[in-house]
Amino acid sequence: MTTISRKRPNYELISFLIITLVAVLFRIIWMKNVPSTPIFDFLTYQEIAANIANGYGHTYQGEAIAFQGMGYPTALGIFYKLVGTTSVEAGRWFNLLLSTCTLLLVYPIFRALTSSRKLALGAYALVAFLPNYIAYVNVIGAEVFLAFLFAAVIFLQLYRFNRYVRIPLLGIFIGLAALTKPVFLAYPLVAAAVYYLREKDLRSSLVFLLSVSLVMAATVAPWTIRNYQKFDRLIPVSYNSGYVLYLNNNANNVTGGWMPLKDAAASPELRSQIDQILEHGKRSEKLAHELDPLLKAEGKRWILAHPLEFAKLGLLRLQATFFSGAWDVQSWAMNDWYPEHPSWTKELERNIKAFRAVADVLIYAMSTLSFLFVGAGVVAALRSLFSRSAKLSNTLLLPTLNISFFILIYFVFEGQARYNFPVLFLLAFCAVFAANSIWRGVKKSGSLSVE
């Protein structure tokens, strides 16, 4: 008698598909039912993208601009042109596409970081249903776009297919990330550090660093040339680094965050120079590229003269980025709901507060567990650095060095809740991994007793 064997269903694939489909559905429901309006930087992105779609180039208020990274508004502008509309609703569908692509990258990343299907699926479910990742489809900002690019960068470091394809792709995606957030110009050093601590081959690591850096530079170069032609000086990506450095590091700053330029501490000479460049308030700060070298020099001078105060502001920036909950979701992704709105009710207010409570708890828990993970990872990385043979795994290296990169950047420049967005999927993995390790330790100990 012949026995017919039945193939067991692939529960992992089924679970992945269900989580992904439900997560995408949640994003669509949010888009359709939660009202928001682009304001501040988000409104600037929208105007630039609309100008690109309408054939006016990368301009703002009728002038060429490079105040922020060009990556997101350019990609959004191209999308607007393809779909034939510059409506904010179309921008949200673009974000939904990017968010879905990020999910499709995140699970393979987690599977490469851990052999445990349950742990990978748990971390993936956390990312898929994270309130921030759902809500930000509403936001016309660089966060969703950068998260996708960053996920692609991590993916390309983990999966070792044809190096003659993978390395150039990695350089291109790092270049696109740099065109979106200029701090990624330094990212090849992070990727090379991961490579070296994993392989312990100095020559190969240097070749990797050089290769990735050259492709990244080639990706960024056309925009740099454009900036030189428009502003008659070398501006690799944007001209706001000095502006941001100075506003976040001056004697009048007590929060570590952004403050109006008029309120920042300045000598009479500096204030006079600023007023002349801004034509006494008639010119937009976003168009005043001449401010950048002036403010960068002042920001550096203050930091060197006040290292302890700088350290205090840096700590405040990290607190604002990783330990201030999810207030940004309410401010940017659902800001058309407010007490004066016609649809505002006590029930709605209660629902919003409950939603915020859940989102806040998740961010606090993820950040706390992730910082513990990174702390242990940094110690291991330093030990490995001074050992010729001690290699580290991707599980420890990639989250540790990448999260540390963001921590360092925000410590120096600017911190606020939405800046944690690109790295949230790594925080989720670290949190689940750390929680699992703690749980296994508790189970191994048998029981907890209080004396």
Structural write-up:
The protein has 451 residues and is mainly α. The chain has a domain at 160-239. Helices cover 68% and strands 1% of the residues. It has 18 helices and two strands. The chain has a two-stranded antiparallel ribbon. Helix 1 packs antiparallel against helix 4, helix 4 (88-113) packs parallel to helix 7 and helix 9 (187-199) runs antiparallel to helix 10. The longest helix has 40 residues, at 346-385. The model has no long low-confidence stretch (mean pLDDT 95). Keywords: Cell membrane, Glycosyltransferase, Membrane, Transferase, Transmembrane, Transmembrane helix. It is a multi-pass membrane protein. Residues 76-223 form the Glycosyltransferase RgtA/B/C/D-like domain. Its main location: membrane. It is found in: Cell membrane.
Strand order of the largest sheet: 1-2
| Quaternary organisation of the protein chains | single chain
Q: What distance lies between the first and last C-alpha atoms, to the nearest angstrom?
A: 65 Å
Largest sheet: 2 strands, antiparallel
Share in helix: 55-70%
How many helical elements? 18
- The strand count comes to 2
Uncertain parts = none
Shape: globular
| Helix/strand structural class | mainly alpha
Q: What percent strand?
A: under 5%
Organism: Tumebacillus lipolyticus
Keywords: Cell membrane, Glycosyltransferase, Membrane, Transferase, Transmembrane, Transmembrane helix
Membrane topology: Multi-pass membrane protein
Protein name: Phospholipid carrier-dependent glycosyltransferase
